[in-house]
Design a protein that fits this description.
The chain is an alpha/beta fold and 199 residues long. It folds into two domains: 115 residues, Rossmann fold (3-Layer(aba) Sandwich); 75 residues, Rossmann fold (3-Layer(aba) Sandwich), CATH 3.40.50.300. Helix content is 57%, strand content 13%. The protein is built from ten helices and five strands; from the N terminus they run βαβααααβαβαααβα. A five-stranded parallel beta sheet has the order 2-3-1-4-5, sandwiched between helices. α7 crosses α8. The chain is globular, with a radius of gyration of 18 Å.
């Protein structure tokens, strides 16, 4: 299966790009959705997290208490690495299964933190959705109803724009209207169909 990783910074327009690919009949596998599935109530992923971090990270209804877990791993790099060691292999395994089962000519794997998790090697192409930082800041401020300082701290927590672009085989610059974005996706769709045919 020809696999494309779709990534980009917060508020760059990744979800909208994924939706356009989906409207063209392409399977989109969202790593954020998978990340929630592998730690859902009753999973071995959740059991491993509770075993490592203690019962306080499990809510009374048996679900993962994300806020409690975040408060532990946010300030502790070792705890964060331990959490990633539990979740990342499960996420990758589930995504691999879904890629194999896909019926589309190629698959889009939406992975917001591709630059941070080093998953480049698993994909035939990397598509980065990009936009100028001032536009990204404005979008984050509007979306989350926060001020510029808070928006900048959100951006600072991710890989830099340069780090993401360094991974890219293809780039969509999302600084225009929806029609321009749809046109850019359709152009890439044609290219990916051809590359997938060539194998």
């Amino acid at each position: 299966m020809f696999k494309v990783a779709l990534t980009g910074g917060i508020a760059s327009g990744k979800s909208r790009v994924a939706d356009i690919f989906e409207s063209l009949g392409i399977t989109v596998i969202d790593s954020d959705v998978i990340a929630r599935e592998v730690v859902a109530k009753g999973t071995e992923g959740l059991a491993a997290i509770v075993q490592r971090f203690g019962p306080t990270v499990q809510a009374p209804d048996g679900q993962l208490d994300r806020r409690a877990l975040r408060s532990i791993v946010f300030a502790d790099p070792v705890a964060r690495r331990d959490l990633e060691a539990i979740t990342h292999p499960r996420i990758r395994a589930r995504m691999a299964t879904l890629n194999q089962a896909a019926q589309a000519p190629y698959v889009i794997n939406a992975i917001p933190l591709l630059a941070e998790t080093g998953g480049r090697r698993d994909f035939d192409r990397v598509l980065v959705v990009d936009c100028p930082e001032n536009l990204q800041l404005a979008r984050v401020m509007a979306r989350d109803q926060i001020d510029e300082a808070a928006a900048r701290s959100v951006l600072a927590a991710q890989s830099s724009r340069a780090e993401r672009l360094a991974l890219a085989d293809d780039v969509i610059l999302n600084d225009g209207d929806l029609e321009a974005l749809q046109s850019a996706v359709r152009t890439l769709h044609g290219r990916y169909l051809e590359l997938a045919r060539r194998g």
